[in-house]
Amino acid sequence: MRFDTPATTNPIDQLRVVGKPTDRIDGPAKTTGRAPYAYERYDVAPNQAYGYVLGAGFAKGRITAMDTAAAKAAPGVVTVVTTLDMPRLERSESNIAYLFGGPEIQHYHQAVAVVVAETFEQARDAAFLIRTDYAREPGRFDLAARAATAPLVSGDSQEGSSAPAEDRTGDFDGAFAQSPVRIDQTYTTPYESHAMMEPHATIAAWNGDKLTVWTSNQMIAWGKRDLAKTLGIRPENLRLDSPYVGGGFGGKLFIRADIVLAALGAKAARRPVKLALTRPLVANNTTHRSATIQRIRIGAGRDGKITAIAHESTSGNLPDGKPETAVQQTKLLYAGANRLTAMRLAELDLPESNAMRAPGEAPGLMALEIAIDEMAEKLGLDPVEFRILNDTQVDPEHPERPFSQRHLIECLRLGADRFGWSGRNATPGRRREGKWLVGMGVAAGFRNNLLAKSGARVHLDKQGVVTVETDMTDIGTGSYTIIAQTAAEMMGVPLEKVVVRLGDSDFPASAGSGGQWGANNSTAGVYAACVKLRDAVAKSLGFNSADAVFADGQVRAGNRSAPIGQAAGEGGLSAEDQIEFGDLAKRYQQSTFAGHFVEVGVDAATGETRVRRMLAVCSAGRILNPKSARSQVIGAMTMGVGAALMEELAVDKRHGFFVNHDLAGYEVPVHADIPHQEVIFLDEVDPASSPMKAKGVGELGLCGVGAAIANAVYNATGVRVRDYPITLDKLI
Ligand code: MOS
User: Fold this and answer.
1) Could you tell me if the ipTM is greater than 0.85?
2) What average pLDDT is seen over the chain?
3) Is the CB of 661 under 6 A from ligand 1?
4) Is 359 close to ligand 1, i.e. is its CB under 6 Å away?
5) CATH number of this structure's domain 39-137+199-284
6) Which of 82, 178, 237, 457 is spaced 20 to 30 A from 721 at the CA atom?
7) What is the pLDDT of residues 173-204, one digit of tens each?
8) How far is 232 from 212, CA to CA, in rounded Å?
9) Which fold has domain 400-449+590-732?
């Protein structure tokens, strides 16, 4: 089905099942241990051996020799494969770092060997018996030291970031120089780790030329394409299966060393091999979000209207890498005739920087939305009113392009009202409750809505059970449930009559879980397949398809009626289709919006910050399942607390690695850190997004939260911290 004009009324609009707060259908399996993650799939392949991946203990140079004799002789060892056993494997479209092979080392903890043994402990013990000789070379590990000479680099990437290296509209320099009210500030965000609950893990099994991997991955079709290229095998000889994923946050968008080394280990061992990356390897072998250094200049008239806005960001990556597109939202969020955005990229020899939840906007808004707060203060304007004053209903760089829908003002006004914003004292440091200095902060949230082709297959049996198959993944987000809701709505059957099967590369390729596009695109693909199945059902029953009404497990046309299962016959009925998008995304700017409000208390003596209350008001088209959408937003708000106050991968600048490479050293919020959180969704639909009229919220919930916290800390204390995370040393 091709979607190139805004959606009109369709069966989803009945909202019998879609749009209702619905428990996750995979919830009972997940909470009773019957939803196994990759490493726990003991039943898929017999005689599994255990792999242990060894990472390089230096960041740059070459390995001159590896002595594996002791490892191979160790108890229980089946085989050892080292990076010297094969030439460097090809890089796929998705990888910047080379995943394995050859003597060259590009970054710390690059995989250099896999040891396969009868037990995990035997594999690990043997790995430490490998003797490696190497010639180390000096590396580049300090982003700040290299920022001044970093060249301009564009930021297009397959997970939807899109920004030219430099973009100018009007005359920024002239307009900024003439603006009566100006700020010129630099903000920094640190390296961040996805820190998902389930580490990267894979079981691999060969059957002749055919390879099956049971793994943990967000994007099955990309993974199949990329693994085929990396291993030099034909895609049709490859199957990926990833029905349950214990979190990804962008860290599992791409195949990593776990899949490659499970496959190579299994080949050498001639039996299935399972392995998981250790926590240190998750931090240093896989990807992370780059640190950024962001300079923002804003000029405004005394009337509070922005006349000039510039946002320049510098991030770091391995050679051939992309920058963090932290300027993305600044191109679209506020009006202003004279504009400049630019991205610079410093080549570094740290592990690969890549997408993490809301790549671009998450760190970009952490800077921009402090700058907006600073500007409002200089102008003597309330920060909510300053944002509203500078709203735009069109793409400011391309005024002929309207937003398909934009209700940022409504988010801010409703949020201010519900949060009690009028009770905020505009003068910092004036509200004290016992030892606590209390402050409120606001920030706008913004994240683009991306459209991507997505396919599904639906099957109806004679019991009236509808089975949906698609390679879409559920990374803890609720995909199973919204897909079931979509099929139930379309086929007029109760939710209990829908079976959803996900994550298998033998199923039709979906949009996958990335860039908050999963919900809208994957359900639109299911919608398309169900439209076909409805036609087949009507035809089978001898009904006119246009007249057929699907409800209560029945199909009715005129005065005739039949149970839907009757159409299926003994063999059942199947239909497959995909949603494809025309140029709607070019004609309309599609984005999601939020108003984030936060109240913090800062201990007047110690500088300890505690978040007290949070509210997000979201504008994101139709909300398919308010319950799972709310979970996504509160999860993202929690991640925003981490980003603002705790999270930082610390770089060892001498040896080039992330020091705090485990969950003891890399701090993320725990339950005790999370206060009262509230989420409100505006009641709206976006007909330009798809037949579902939905957009995404999984990343929107993070975008802007960090700055709202920083602004609340400023309001509480009068200390303006521009370098995240806002730890207590920066407040005293
Ligand atoms: Mo997202 S960073 O595209 O999983």
Assistant:
1) yes
2) 97
3) no
4) yes
5) 3.30.365.10
6) 178
7) 999 999 999 999 999 999 999 999 999 999 99
8) 15
9) Aldehyde Oxidoreductase; domain 4 (3.30.365)
Cα-based distances in Å from 200 to 93, 191, 277: 19, 19, 6
Ligand 1 center–CA 479 separation, angstroms = 15
Spatial distance between the Cα atoms of 398 and 168, rounded to a whole number of angstroms: 12
Going from the Cα of 358 to the center of ligand 1, the distance in angstroms, rounded, reads: 6
Task: Tell which residue, 235, 266, 10, 255, has the closest CA to residue 114.
Answer: 266
355 Cβ below 6 A of ligand 1: yes
Q: Which atom of ligand 1 is nearest to the CA of 159?
A: 3
Q: pLDDT tens across 278-330, in order?
A: 999 999 999 999 999 999 999 999 999 999 999 999 999 999 999 999 999 99
Q: Whose CA is nearest to atom 4 of ligand 1?
A: 250
* CATH 3.30.365.10 domain range(s) in the chain: 2-35+451-585, 39-137+199-284, 400-449+590-732
CB of 250 shorter than 6 A to ligand 1: yes
Number of CB atoms found within 10 A of residue 699's CB: 29
DSSP 38: G
Q: In the 3-class helix/strand/coil scheme, how is 672-717 assigned residue by residue?
A: HHCCEEEEEECCCCCCCCCCCCECCCCCCCCCCHHHHHHHHHHHHH
Local structure of 206: helix, strand or coil: strand
Is the shortest distance between the CB of 511 and ligand 1 below 6 Å?
A: no
Q: Which atom of ligand 1 is nearest to the CA of 358?
A: 2
Centroid of ligand 1 to alpha carbon of 469 (angstroms): 22
Q: Which of 591, 516, 506 is nearest to 239 (CA)?
A: 506
Residue written as token pair 């203990």 = 57
Dump strand ranges (E) for 111-270. Answer: 111-117, 131-136, 166-169, 181-189, 201-207, 210-215, 238-241
* CA 461 to ligand 1 centroid distance, Å: 36
Residue 306, C-beta contacts closer than 8 angstroms, at least 6 positions apart: 298, 299, 300, 334, 335, 336, 375, 390
Nearest-atom number in ligand 1 for the CA of 356 is 2
Hey, which of 222, 253, 450, 475 would you mutate to test ligand 1's pocket, going by the most ligand atoms within 8 Å of its Cβ? 253
Is the per-residue pLDDT at 159 higher than 70? no
Q: How far apart are CA 200 and CA 195, in angstroms?
A: 11
Class of domain 2-35+451-585: alpha beta
Phi (first) and psi of residue 331, to 5 degrees:
-70, -20
The catalytic residues are 699
CB neighbourhood size of 654 (10 A)? 11
Q: State residue 601 phi and psi, 5-degree precision.
A: -120, 135
Beta strands in 13-84 (DSSP E): 49-55, 61-67, 77-82
Q: Closest Cα partner for 81 from 302, 190, 231?
A: 231
Q: Which helix (H) or strand (E) holds 275?
A: strand 273-276
**C-beta 274 within 6 A of ligand 1:** no
